[in-house]
Amino acid sequence: MSGPSIAAGDARSHHVSVQVLVNDQKVTLEKDEATGAEIKAAAIAVGVPIELDFVLSEVLPNGKQRVVPDDKRVHLKDGDEFWAIPGDDNS
Predict the structure, then answer these.
(1) What's the pLDDT tens digit per position in 38-53?
(2) What is the dihedral of CA 70, 73, 75, 78, to 10 degrees?
(3) Per the structure, how many domains does the chain have?
């Protein structure tokens, strides 16, 4: 006799919504993994005043920051915090 089981694919079929902060503004993503570019695009879509060419950094638990390249996929959880800043100050 075995208890209830969940097929491996079932977890992915559920709708996932994750709330993160980008420059102190709430951004909701519809999946728990996203690239740096996807995080920035989602932030722009809800009115965070950043550009796609900004540099995105994840704020780590120790307060330090780690750059998230546009093509790097990161695992997201509610409350994760990111900062997006202009990457080129030579204007």
Answers:
(1) 999 999 999 999 999 9
(2) 30
(3) 1
